[in-house]
Amino acid sequence: xxxxxxxxxxxxxxxxxxxxxxxxxxxxxxxxxxxxxxxxxxxxxxxxxxxxxxxxxxxxxxxxxxxxxxxxxxxxxxxxxxxxxxxxxxxxxxxxxxxxxxxxxxxxxxxxxxxxxxxxxxxxxxxxxxxxxxxxxxxxxxxxxxxxxxxxxxxxxxxxxxxxxxxxxxxxxxxx
Length: 176
What we know:
Strand 2 (88-93) and strand 3 (96-104) form a beta hairpin. By secondary structure, the protein is mostly helical. It has 6 helices and 3 strands, in the order ααβααββαα. It has helices spanning 3-36, 44-55, 61-68, 72-84, 106-128, 132-150; strands at 59-60, 88-93, 96-104. It has a 3-stranded antiparallel sheet. It has a domain at 39-132: Arc Repressor Mutant, subunit A (Orthogonal Bundle).
């Protein structure tokens, strides 16, 4: 590696380390927000599934398994638990009797709304304490990062032949 390449990669490494630190802090905040919601408590793995099903209403179980990078039996158990709580429902796929479609229920929407509201409050408080110019720079930087991440093939339902454009239904920009 030349010195020029090394110097150019240093800001990328610094940004990567900073972002990893922020993700860890957000994980803690998210856990606190989930703990403040009324029962039932939803583990992170189930919350991640709920967020995906919420954004991808009618997602095939096979596609959810692909997006999570998990084994089909594990995903099926996650869905079983969410269905038992009344947050997700399975439906028949009109084009294939072998496939299962997943949808979030009204109770699931309500639970997600409560969790997201608590998260919003925590983030709003932190962002309000930042100087305006730093908030603006952060907003621009995060928008650029989101755009770049949405361009990653791994975040799309490419295995099934659907490759939605960023910001459109079918885009897998998920966070639990």
